[in-house]
């Protein structure tokens, strides 16, 4: 089995410095968005998906586990947060906390089942589990079926920040994204992350070295699901609804696509991929189902022509790790 | 009781489709090491080819049973030659991603031209009506689907397990390099295997056209259930795929009668239970 990425060696100081510089540029660019006249809703949406794709990438890029059901975390956290805000009238911070906690619990339950099988079976199991949840949400009364939960009040974060103001909401979402991103970055470069990479490269050897690989995989899965859920909770404030679209298999496919386009196993790839795919959907919204066809074409061409993705190819060209 | 038997029959029909599709997935996985995500889309193409043959060419259902699998099989072989073959030696997941992309393209194109609603396909005259079996009324077409699928499944089993060609195939699954050394053209066999698996999916599509209507997304949700069937049964054994497919269809039928709310989810729940009790699947070897 060939490796997904080139980064099998531990971080060098130079690579670390490169990545921190890129991260700083990214943070500054994102911070000045409200002053540029760019539609903030678009960037906020893209940021939520970027965090989602980064969380997904933690699992595939560093653990070698392709989850085809990550929409279940997005949707579950979204529904729970929306319900907490609208029906229980909880403040935003508690809504986000409960939504994210729900995703973490879901990660524990589905992770325990799905990591029992490896490789391609893992992907099929996660897909089937997310379809199971889709049907449950379709029938559960609190999700309001096809209509979804709509008109969600945004409220005041910590009682002071008025989230119904686009600029305030933007910086809250940005802060959430950056915090999530740094947490993933820290995880990847921790001893835990190194063990994950070793499992990806050669699981039997990792086992023979004494690592309980199932525990590592489960922990990575739960972490990934929790962060994906956090992104889902944030997205509720942006979209102000929670619907079945977020739990559907096509959403899981889009998450995979974003990460693949940006570059599996690259640090910034999922962010770039999310912006590219969300922008594409915005501009091609009038073309109906052709968007699906174009997504399919991108999938096929990515797999056949540039498996490293945009950022991966760039990093390879510059011989840097990005 | 009438209603229970009717649901069991529906279950057997769904089971036929699960069996035909999971059989194809297993055969393809054995040779190509690829989980064919496009299987549902190709199943849908089979139904559409039958629809076109009837409505544009006036070609009957019986010919469609033969022509549709061949045409879709050729389409599949073109896919294999132009795209899938380049994935040899890469991680499994790329095969899944590539075929997922193909499924999106095929389903998207059909949705553009035919929307999402169903097109009717008439039951052929010879199979119209039904017989009263005493304990239930059996629509002839439905009985035909179950029996014909069973025959096709067993024929495929016979082809792979009991013939010379099947022996080559099984040998190439175990060790392609060695089989090539014996002078057998393994790449051609891989292409034909993909064609065979895809043809089985298209055949299931033709069979389902008069029952489920012809819809661009008819295979999209089905393939996910079939994945669960494959996880439950494991892909190690052909007979295992057939039995698991039919059995799960029947269980689904029972569920529709006794607890209809769970009929969509019962296969997935069973998958979870099997994973908890016997993680390798009922017939499968360790992955």
Description:
- Chain A: The chain crosses the membrane at residues 20-42, 49-74, 94-113, 120-137, 168-188, 218-237, 257-280, 287-306.
- Chain A: InterPro entries: ABC_transp_permease (IPR001851), LivM-like (IPR043428).
- Chain A: Keywords: Cell membrane, Membrane, Transmembrane, Transmembrane helix.
- Chain A has 322 residues and is mainly alpha-helical.
- Chain A has one domain: Orthogonal Bundle (ABC transporter involved in vitamin B12 uptake, BtuC).
- Helices cover 70% and strands 1% of the residues of chain A.
- Chain A is built from 13 helices and 2 strands, in the order αααααββαααααααα.
- Chain A has a two-stranded antiparallel ribbon.
- In chain A, 52% of the residues are buried.
- Chain B is mainly α.
- Helices cover 73% and strands 2% of the residues of chain B.
- In chain B, strands 1-2 form a two-stranded antiparallel ribbon.
- In chain B, helix 1 packs antiparallel against helix 8 (186-212) and helix 9 packs across helix 10 (238-258).
- Chain B is globular, with a radius of gyration of 19 Å.
- Chains A and B meet through helix 5, helix 10 and helix 12 of A and helix 4, helix 9 and helix 11 of B.
